[in-house]
Write a structure and sequence with these properties.
The chain has 242 residues and is of the alpha+beta class. The chain is built from eight helices and six strands, in the order H-H-H-H-E-E-E-H-E-H-E-H-H-E.
Length: 242
Amino acid sequence: AFGAQDLAVFASSAVQSGSATDAMSALVKSLTTSQHQGAADALWSGFEMEPVAVFLASAYLLGQLLVSFSLRDILGEEKLPFSCCPMFFFPRNLFSQTPKLFCISGANWRRGGYLDCSWLYNEAFVPPFELRKEDMSNLQFPLVTFGSLSPMPEDVAFRVKPEYRNLPFVLFANVAVSKELRARLEKLLGIFAEGEEADAWRPQKLHEIMELQKECRALFNTHHGALQADQSVASSAHTKSD
């Protein structure tokens, strides 16, 4: 994170001043801030206490960077180099022709146990990721999960029940969903399905989506009342096909 911040300072200075000398000066100042010195001190302290652990962590990080920036195209997937965990199946572009799942909820995602319900567990998924109707009814907050499971790539089809694969629109909820809200949700999915990846950089298209999202949120709040005082209005979108 610090390195990205330093590069941002360097690039910004180069664009504004047009001078490589000024840009380099800004980079040096950024590198010598107390924030970086504190991080360096902490790293050195850790190395003195546990040199082997720091070495192994550094080797793991370098290995991950090597795979991410050099071997990813060869592997054709995004997995950590020393793990079987598929971190990201697809590029995170809402307009990509990939499955998408969204949710509107009355839960505060910052509290433990809520976030996974937004994407990891779902009625369309096979066990142990299945969230059955009886499970949904036991949730202590309103939840509407919707999206599209079309087109369904072979890489993730094993995780989705056969009857839900390639469906253009799916909706699961533990509360009643009005016709008006459902129509807005279907319209939102239609925008993604009919769009192209370049739409992700078109302000007008993004503004249309944000306005439609606000309408969906307002309808959800209207039909399901005020949230508890310790909960915040939260929505979550996940495009990982997971």
